[in-house]
UniProtKB/TrEMBL annotation:
It comes from Streptomyces subrutilus. The keyword Transcription regulation applies. This is TetR family transcriptional regulator. Residues 42-61 bind DNA. GO terms for biological process: negative regulation of DNA-templated transcription. The keyword Transcription applies. InterPro entries: Homeodomain-like_sf, HTH-type_TetR-like_transc_reg, HTH_TetR, Repressor_TetR_C, Tet_transcr_reg_TetR-rel_C_sf.
Length: 230
């Protein structure tokens, strides 16, 4: 005779669920993101993971956007802030911090795109912000210009990560890049003299070289461009 399947356990016999809380919810969201991608990190999917109803999650998080911001905050802990207090040129150290931030987002394409609109506000985000502001202050950037400059730096870094990670998911991205380089290289001087003059250089440099130059350009602009009076 075939063995009878085991009888389902009653609620009383099941292991007790961990108490709901912000940390428990975010930890579950991170697990889902790692295995299924950020697009699957929804209140409904999270409720299933935690064996609860979606309504109970709204006590801790207002919506999916806030949930994604909390996941982003968790990953910001991996940003390398050691250059903030290291020796060396402050601009180079600032670029190193921002490149580490880009790298964290680049490793998680969905997170990089979400970071364009997500607004984390936890300890890791504050540490990143404080570190950037400390380096701008070390470089003599006036406080008012630093306040706006840090926003531009993070926007550039986030947009770069989102763009590069999206291209990384596209199998045809390398072919598209080669085609664009060829188009620029072959632009006729008669109709496009400026492109023809620097066509090779338009696509030159490694991704990190170009990114470091971009951050230095933004910092130099913040250093020398006063804010308009109110």
């Amino acid at each position: 005779m075939a063995p009878h399947p085991p009888a389902p356990k009653s609620r009383r016999e099941r292991p007790a669920k961990p108490a709901l809380g912000h940390e428990v919810i975010v930890a579950a969201a991170v697990r889902i993101m790692r295995s299924e991608g950020l697009q699957r990190v929804t209140m409904r999917r999270l409720a299933t993971e935690l064996d609860t109803g979606p309504a109970s999650l709204y006590v801790y998080l207002a919506n999916t956007a806030e949930l994604h911001a909390a996941v982003l905050e968790e990953f910001l802990g991996a940003v390398d802030l050691r250059p903030v207090t290291a020796p060396g040129d402050w601009r180079d150290r600032l670029a190193s911090v921002l490149i580490s931030y880009v790298g964290v987002l680049f490793d998680h394409p969905g997170l990089a795109r979400s970071a364009l609109v997500a607004r984390p506000r936890g300890a890791h985000y504050l540490a990143l912000l404080e570190g950037i502001l400390a380096l701008l202050d070390e470089g003599g950037v006036p406080a008012a210009q630093a306040a706006w400059g840090v926003d531009v730096l993070l926007q550039v870094a986030t947009a770069t990560a989102a763009e590069q990670s999206t291209r990384g998911e596209d199998a045809a991205a390398a072919d598209d890049h080669s085609a664009l380089a060829r188009t620029l290289r072959e632009a006729p001087a008669a109709t496009h003299p400026r492109i023809a003059a620097i066509g090779e250089d338009l696509m030159s440099g490694t991704a990190e070289q170009r990114l470091r130059w971009t951050f230095r350009a933004v910092v130099n602009g913040a250093l020398t461009t006063p804010r308009d009076p109110a």
